[in-house]
Amino acid sequence: MMTVPGWLMAQNGVTITGQVKTNTGGPLANANVFIQGLNLGASTREDGHYTIAIPAAQANGQAATLVARRLGYQSDSVGITLAAGAQTHDFTLTVAATQLEGVVVTALGIERDKRSLGVAQQTVVPDELTSARETNVVNALSGKVSGVEITNNGPPGGSARIVIRGDKSITGNNQPLFVVDGIPIDNSAPRNSGNGGLDYGNAASDIDPNDIESISILKGANAAALYGSRASNGAVVVTTKTGRRSLGLGVNATQNVTFETPLKLPEFQNVYGQGSGGQFAYKDGKGGGINDNVNRSWGPKMDGRLITQWWSNGQPAPWVPAPNNVRDFFDLGRTSTSNVAVTGSSDRADVRLSVTNLDQKSMFPTNTIRRLNTSLNGGAKITPKLDARATVGYVQDQGRNRPGTGYDANSALFNIEIWGGRQRDLAHLKDYIKPDGTQKGPNNTTTNNPYWDVYADPNFDTRDRFIGSGTLTYKATDWLTAMVRSGTDWYRDVREQDYADGNIAVNYSGGAFFQQNNNIRETNTDFMLSAERHSSSRLGISGNLGGNIRDNSSFSLNQGTPHLVIPGTYNIGNSAVTPQVSSSKSLRRGNAIYGQAQFSWDNYAFVDVTGRSDWSSTLPKGNNSYFYPSASGSFVFTDAFPSMHFGKVLSYGKLRASWAEVGADASPYQLDVTYAAGTPFGSVPRFSVPNGLPALDLKPERTDSWETGTELRFYEDRISLDFTYYNTLTKNQIIPAQITPAIGYTSATVNAGSIKNTGEEVMLNVTPMRRGDFQWDVTANYGRNRSMVTSLYPGLQTVVLGTYWGLSIEARLDERYGTLFGNPYLRDTQGRLVLKNGLPQTDPTQVVLGHYTPDWIGGLQNKFHWKSFDFSFLFDTKQGGQVFSTTKMFGEESGVLKSSLRGRENGQTLDEGGGLIVDGVNADGTPNTTKVTAQAYFNALFQNHEANIVDGSFVKLREMKVDYTVPRSVTRRLNVSALNVALVGRNLWLHTNAPDIDPESAFDNSNVQGIEFVNFPTARSIGFMFNVTP
Amino acid sequence: MKSHMTRAAAALALTAFAAACDNITDINHSPNSPTTVTPQFLFPNAVTNVLGTIRGGSLDLTLTSLWAQQMAMDRFTDEDRYSIRPDNINGYWSGFYAGGLEDLATILQQTKPADAPNLVGPALVMKSFTFGAMTDIWGDIPYSEANLGDVTKPPKYDRQQDIYTGIDADLKAASNMLVAGAKSYGAADLIYGGGANSWQNWKKFANSLRLRYAIRLSKVDPATAQTRAAEAIAAGVFTSNADNALLTYPGDGTNNSPIWSNFQTRDDQHVSKTLIDILKSLYISTTGADTTFDPRLAIYADPIISSPMKALYVGAPNGLQDDDAIAIGINNTSRLGAAWRQPATKAILQTYAEVLFDQAEAAARGWIPGDPAQLYNAAITASMQFNHVPDDVTAAYIASPRVAYNAVSGLDQIALQRWIALFQEGIEAYSEYRRTNVPNLQAGPAVITNPSIVARRLTYPLSEQSFNNANLQSAISAQGGADLTGRVWWDKP
């Protein structure tokens, strides 16, 4: 029992002390114990004890309710009397897998009791985010929230794409709005250019998981109607930690280290080496030998025979396979995160300072990512009625040598996996440069030595980001509060890619470099008046009225040159040709006024109404405002009709329904025809008509959605079920519709198109066992979304989102969003393959071959608590959806994959006994009897999309964690307050029908998904974590 | 008191708000690009854009020069076997319509002939040049309704006959409107330099193009061909190599000949066996051991590396299977002649030689007065001079029995020499082959056409199926089909 310091004992006041424990026996730190209605409380310390001091002025013997709660646990309360003197109350809180009740954060930071929400909302507790040490907070949400689909890109620092309840916008942004402490922040990710490029990550990954107090996922237009246009896809509302946790000074430190290896690599064949038609001999890599400029593996059998090779100085050397050359190309990755947080608080002020250093050495040789997060959060009670809070955060990201992605001439991954022969061993390849600085490699015509891509072509990037806000809250009366908040998200990116002189794949004679500079800033100022009044004891009325002024500006300046004068000096002054320079500026502004009113009856029935009106700078003058309302209701029927409890069966039951409309404006500068400057031709300037035809009378987009659902809890909350059905229609979409170029443009901006998304979400929690020190929780979530493009512009069949290899990813009329439209096999009316000279043909008429959007997604998590141990594992699945595999297409066409051994089990050429007879018919209908070589067969399948589309379904063991809270007896001896160790793993196991690839990895995080592009392999990471409070 | 203050503050905020809302659209004008431009900025872009698509790494090297069998693929032989990547066909189509043609259409919409005849004239010439090439490759295409910029009206496909009539009319109008003293494009005239007399060059170019598209109709409509050809010649065509319509690349590293750029990193196209064998067959003299071939052989092709002692030229066969092409060995066939792949190598729109061959043919058919033999010799000389062959060698060449004009086989001789002279003008060589069947090209062993013949046309882009399908299907049925073996209107058997 702790002695209470004298200065805390108020004269004739009340002192309440006690301890909060968890139902599995351990003390519960950081739980909030408070007197309902009095705004007085305290947090429990590391040993679970708390102390609340109530001044005599507020304690006159009245009855009150003392509540103990903490995210991740069911809250508990007890009735007390505020009589002068000391009293003790202990609490035991039960672990709850999800936030079933209590206060949750909703739009605009408004805190609401979950029971009063008429919409689906899910909170993710901080442990869930930091448990397996995922460095990108978006990825950390994968599998944990129903209806939220996360696609994780492979490379470290790579972007993650998050879509809630399906894609609603045809070409616009389909990702939710990210809000941190009431300030919307930028989550853009630069789109990969052309067929390749570098993945610089999505901006929201700068949020430090260590700073997060809670994340509230608002899933639909309904839940986010107060945020405006950008929240029509939902909102991810992040609340960061403050210093209010502990009285006095608190320190906490965390260190974790994980190691990464590739989860899945393609299966390669190790029978035939480089060449064509079974022939190969190296002379100069330019065709001077026999097929020595051919980057395929259709050459001689690697049985040790002597063949001149690129490194053997003209001498024949043993021709043997290098079976592990791809696996050994990757290093063991290592990620280390260190965090120190210092908090302090008194009864009038609190502050929290946190510093996190992330140091990641990736599986790709020489690639590193570093991130430094510093955040300061301070609040003070300036007068009893005036609160102030300020947050300042600075993030610095530094990336080096990010791996190239996609079909890029400079992508080392492509060069090591696809181009080449299976005899190419790393030991010789590592010798990539001659003493005179020129490249040394197996191919001197079109392809670099992959180690040249790694070492001679470095890239660097730095981002400096500042996110800050200031808030003043003034409690004018006990029912009226006014708030003013202003905040900004500002960052600056500098990226550079350098190319040494001697690049074989691209003509960068002299060397080349390209640099991009971006400046992005968003500033928001909000004011809000909140009122809460009970007109009678049963009817409650509360409301908010507010406004927002938002300002976005961005500026980018790019410079570069494909030819330097003096190699090695990467400066634009050293350019041998006219430098390539481009710049662009963008400004937009928006003003909004919004209001919300809530009516509650007897705390079991609630009705919410909101309305918002926006004025946007991007719509036509005089027609640039739009208004949209929403309404929702929630009914806790078990409170209204206690008989519905059915004894002890149904402990809680709620029905909810809501409807909302959200409007959306366009991107800036859509309304004018603008001419594009070209590089001068010699000294003659050039301009051209752009390829996009603007719309002169643009209207705002509208999303209409309604949802209904229920929350049910059975057997004293041992089983809880949350079910939602939603129906969303997004219409009047502002789309750059592709049109026939014969009109003079390749696209036109139109208001057209509607997409319907309907679906169900289920969240089920079961506690199958709870006995003494042991508890077992199971959480399952399931989401099924059906999308349909219900209308487009008249005469328009489809909007093409992107095309690669002749395969289009489209929003096609009467199809699910994300259609794969491409060329199938040529077949006759009976469905048999029609062959020519024994080879399959590609039908020039394109058809729908699949969709990338999944049928359903889900997650299953098991958690076991026993005394001080926690063990949990999460399975994550996406079922349905197809992916076009570039690895398959190029890997088979170049003969490196194991699957390309088909037809050459006995030899490469027909003379050697190789070949296969394809099952099909000739043009005249007779069965095929012509034998063809494997090389010819797989060459014929190149750009046959049907042949290369694979099933995108998968099941992954996404996370596994064993966590141990070191007991007091040990920590006392170590002289620390608390110590926690954990063993963690992510992406541990994958099951999929897709051959050779992880179908989840994507090319970038735009709407053009469904194409696997020889992506960076997913990392399987395993490691450990220490957390100590000195 | 405090609640009054709060209410007052709220009211103030709301009014400030409302005032701020009205003018925010004023910032919505892009600071990054101009919203109006004058023709002299659009014209050079149109010229370079059109030529970049027709010549250079695009249509010439990857399609038309291959199908004309003047170049051949030494690997990745798909295009040589008539299997063109759909992405590429879509790209050519949109590259024309949404690229150079849109720039030209904008000039023509913004400028009236009466106000600026020397701006409109060249624009009409370039438009006709482009559409001529396009219809020769694709047959019926959007023409009269193209480039109108109205999303609600996807254009119909015009019959090739109507397109040819339209081209002839436009060129005639251009020739008539060009006049001395009117404002010209100045330095923005990338073809003739925009000097005081450039209008005369454009006039000759307009008429020379008229002649080209008149001769093309020799099989399908000889009467019209004769009328238009005679008119064009009478109105004044090229009179020397100085009149050639060429685009000169600065070769300064930023704007290089696309041919040169292509061969910096790739080596996929070598000179075709068909062309080299023909050039060899037209030798001037031989002593058994030593043969003096058509002097253009050494200029069109580089000798293969493996014989430095005596220059040896070997062509690559067209239309092979990929591994068969690779098996030949990349150093065993001749690359494109060094003279033709320099950074400043010019792109050809039309040469004096072609004009003379057209006149020779017109004379041989009796459409115009004139001596076909003399015109034939002058045409060969023009081609030789263009390739910097000394005149005495040319004289010997013309005198040799394999080349000397013979009235019986005159039309075939003219056609063969013209095909040779059209080197690096892929579309023209391919169209003239189709019209005259000279030389008698044979399809390669691995072509995808069914039956296995030389392709007669290119298929329509798949994108038209998505965006203009109704008009596309009408066009296909009007032409009786539009696959690789279908014939365009003027291509009568």
Strand content of chain A: over 45%
- Number of extended strands of chain A: 57
Overall geometric form of chain B: globular
Biggest sheet descriptor of chain A = 22 strands, antiparallel, barrel
Low-pLDDT stretches of chain A are none
Distance between the termini of chain A: 21 Å
> In terms of structural class, how would the helical and strand content of chain B be classed?
mainly alpha
Range of helix content of chain B: 40-55%
The arrangement of helices and strands of chain B along the chain is HHHEHHHHHEHEHEEHHEHHHHHHH
The interface involving the most residues is between: A-B, 108 and 94 residues
Structural class of chain A: mainly beta
- Tell me the β content of chain B: under 5%
- N-to-C CA distance of chain B: 99 Å
Helical residues, percent of chain A: under 10%
**Strand arrangement across the biggest beta sheet of chain B:** 1-3
Low-confidence stretches of chain B: none
Mean of pLDDT of chain A:
86
* Strand count of chain B: 6
- Counted by DSSP, the helix tally of chain A is 10
